[in-house]
Amino acid sequence: MSLLITLVLVIFKIAAAVMSGSISVVAEAINNASDIFTSLIAMLAVRLSDKPADANHPYGHGKIESLGALVTVGFLTATYLGVIYQASGRLRQPEPLEDAVWALLAVGLSMGINVFRQWWFMRAARLHRSQALAAEALNFRMDLVSSGVTLVALLLASLQNGAWANVNPAIADPLGAILVSLVALTFAAHLGKRAVDVLLDRAPLELTQQIGQMAARTPNVLSVGNVRVREVGNRAFVDLTVAVPRTLSLEASHDVATLIEEGTHDLVSEADVVVHIEPVAALDETLVDRIRTASLRTGRIVHNVNVYTIGEVAFAQLDLELSPDLNLHTAHRLAHELELILRREFALAHVSIHIEPIEPVGKAATTASLHNKEKGHLMHTLNQLSRMHPEVRRIHNLVLDQVGQRLNLAFDCELSPDMPLAMAHTIAERFEHDLRAKVPKLGRVSIHTEPHGAEDH
Predict the structure, then answer these.
(1) What is the per-residue pLDDT across 355-379, written as a single tens digit (0 to 9) for each?
(2) Which residue range is the domain that position 194 belongs to?
């Protein structure tokens, strides 16, 4: 419909220009003819840019819109330079207008129509974040300005010679045409700059700063590195680097990246976001954290890490988890290698490593009758031990399974609610020691200490 209206305006203006002899109306007609060309380019660009990304175009086809805008700029520039050339000849040899009524009517009608079209296309451009539609709205805004200049020029050119003293009023018409062309070329230059910026991946500064500030506010982000944003059509491609504490788990680090992606989509809905997580040492990282991290870096899993200092000398104790299938010689070699790494990296005077065999995860090999039998025997043993440890108020929630020839045991142990945590831990260790002495085939033992009277979980 917009193209049909523009075509009618072109025909009307050409007829008015022929009847009046006005070159400024000719410039207006050329302007509307160029609208038809630019509209066709815009529609073609939007249709092609909506094609999904493929192997040869992983970022999609959005830049076709910018190419279309650049073609439009070239067409407008060539057209209006030609108008300026023709109008310059009229300035040297002015010709009076024959009948300005039809010219004034054509320009006035064009201005009314373009007010509506400029509003409608700008609204659509903002809704779809489309450069091609924004170019159309800008083109109609340019039409309004040029039509206003043409209207003033026609009114001046229609005045009688006496109103201009010694100046021929006919020069207003070519002057109007030149002004219209200059306005058109100014808008074309603005549109061309925007298209070139997109084609050359010029970063949108404001959006880049907003994304960086949002990422810096994300929990567990220590710092934000390089933030790069490129716009392709109505989509933004964002990649950035953020530093997180190296003690953060892989899952927690992924959650950080997810929060940044969601925050970016709040700023720009159509966005493809890549977040590179870089683990670094936090300022508040303890020596225990650093020892755990260094151990993981060598492929070793440690727990129960404790660090002691005497004066300026530091000592470390830790448990090293290794496969039970290793022989003692290999296990000792691995522990010794870790000890050397830790002493060298953290200037530790001594590192005491307790090697702990970790049973592989497997399927329980017992039957229900065996469970019941073993549970009965173990429950009897636990009750006997609880009488030997008066601090133990109650034992319950016994869980038993068998992996290979070893029994894994877990139970809840109730103690006094006012008991210090350190004492509760010591009692649990003593209880486990005495239990292993009575049941040598025990594998992993997990004792959950809780205050007496707490609800069962």
Answers:
(1) 888 765 554 444 444 556 667 788 8
(2) 2-199
